[in-house]
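From the pipeline queue, job 12 of 40. The input is one protein chain; the requested action is below.

Action: predict structure.
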Amino acid sequence: MTNYELPYSMDAEEAAIGAVLIQPALFNRVAEIVTSADFFITRLRMIWQAIVELQAEGVQGTDIVVVSSHLFHPL
């Protein structure tokens, strides 16, 4: 029996999140294509989910500081 691993690209996952953290206005464009389930790497999935939650709450400017605060000190 052969073990198969799903294809993924850590670089692509990091690039999607990095783009949104650097330029939060890109969120809607990226979110049209990407969901949390698309992230293979757990920590990146958690970061994306935090961005999604903040956007749903109407938080403007979901940059690295805001997202980090949400992850480590959720309200």
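Job complete. The chain is about 55% helix and 0% strand.
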